[in-house]
Amino acid sequence: MLMSSFSPGLLLILGAIAVPLFRGTVRQVYMLALPLLALLMAAFLLESGVHGRLALLGVELELVRVDRLSTIFGIIFSIAAVLGVLYSQHDQDPVQQVAGLIYAGAAIGAVYAGDLLTLFIFWELTAVSSVFLIWATATERAYHAGMRYLVIQVGSGVLLMAGALLHYADTGSLSFDELGLNTLGHTLIFLAFGIKCAFPLLHNWLEDAYPEATVGGTVMLSAFTTKLAVYSLARGFPGTEILIYIGVTMTAFPIFYAVIENDLRRVLAYSLNNQLGFMVTGIGIGTPLAINGTAAHAFCHILYKALLFMSMGAVLHRTGTIKGSELGGLYKSMPWTTGFCIVGAASISAFPLFSGFVSKSMILTAVAEEGYFIPWLLLLFASAGVFHHSGIKIPFFAFFAHDSGIRVQEAPKNMLIAMGITSFLCIGVGIFPQPLYALLPHPVDFHPYSVAHVITQLQLLLFSALAFTWLMRSGVYPPELRSTNLDFDVTYRMGLPALARWLVGIFLPVDQAIRQSAVRAFHRVVYGIYRYSGPGGSLARTLGAGSMVFWVLAMLVGYLLISLARS
Amino acid sequence: MTEQTNDSSEKVYWLDRPKNVSLIVWALVGVCVALFFADAFYHKHPHFEIEHLFGFYGVYGFFVCIALVLVAKSLRAILMRSEDYYDTSEESHHTKDLAHHAHE
After folding, report:
1. A373 — contact with chain B (CB < 8 Å)?
2. What number is the ipTM of this complex?
3. Minimal C-alpha gap between A256 and chain B (Å)
């Protein structure tokens, strides 16, 4: 079937190029049609198997590999693209429109890639296209953040390529299947995935760049890059034990930052990092239930995280600020946005009847079933923490808290529609998880709505809310302050330049001394040559014919004397 | 797009009254108490010993959240810098470098 050999990713990428040809409503319809068509392909038209085989320089490439794992990610990426396009419709900036569609297409193309070279090409394309969503903010700050983002993302691609080449040298194949951490090549690939997945210490590009993107750009960014990495880890490294510890660390440490961060979109970026931790832990456990949990959680997470970024984007769009210290009381002027934000908050917090509940519980159950007690306790802590900063802090400081006196219009209609559909999906998946479970990579025998599970989850969440309330009322809760909190990026934003200055400070005098002595030596040589060969130098003197005769005579006399002495 | 008004004749919302906020707080306390004692009335399927403790999830959630906030708050002492920390430092180094080059 011809359709099958054509990646839905390519459809978006090639289709994106034609976007500037259209104007007004036609462009809007065209831009929605592309991801809808991709969704149609991902959900119904693509048949499982490998399509689009291509021989390139003796290497076999597989453009489209359709199986259950790639299908669920292909579907949710297409849905995210539809929602992102809808949400950004008020902004008719062609650069963002083209970049956004290419970015979504590259992520979808990467998910369907059957070999490491195809994966690499789409991998780098996600980086190069998405950075325009950050630069489109058109501030000095966004420019620098975008640059850092691009360097790190492209660097991840370089590691992937190096790893793929080593893998090819070892095995003679480029096909992208389960790899495992057993060779240098695979370790490089693991690191490449780890950068894009925002592993601890490799994470800061996320918190640095995402909050600097445009209102619609952040919504797009939140969906694709990191979940592409989750997909790749699930494909290449399921059951790799170190991922459990990496994942648990990822769930736990960003929430401390989320509590004290003032930029509410940056709070969401930290909580995104924390949510990735749950998925990574699931991959590390590697049992069918855990991998199902990871895929399901990625699916739900893309929706509620987009919804939260959408609501904060609407606030930023209307008020011009997203700082917790400046906001408050917006529920009066943006009631719909408030409602949608609360749906997103309830979903990420995994309240029963909302999407996070039916997916995160699979991962926690899988961790408990394998007997990992400390990781399980930490995940539980992180779950309570998520509710604390994403579930309560985000809606509370933006829409409630003390009334900032800001009165604005409700969000634009296209944003409300996008948020409405996303909210509907979050609740729909929460109440009827069966269609989602049917999409998962492995057969599902999991029932989230047991009495014990509902009650224990409500206990965890509502007692967290009680803690928040008590801390708030007693005045212990740290106020939102205009500030920057140092994270690992201080090492390369301040540390590297400082190191460079320090090295320059040390080597500058050495360098100067070496140069000066070299210059002095050179001077001496030149001066010496000049002294003997320059004008008036002894070697350059021109002598008269008289002196010539004199020296010839002297030589002859000397010769005569020597001959006389010998005889 | 920002439009700020401080109209004193503005509608007073339900949540504007401190009494109603207190009502919500007490409702939350009530629900929490009910959930705590609900532990007596259902069959648990625990994976770990600790889950047998009465009201474990509630107690754990409450205390880890307080710990989270207190630790995060104290981290501010180490981590917090002014809002334009990176802007000024990056910029000043940049301008310093430029000045340095110009000087050369």
Report:
1. yes
2. 0.81
3. 5
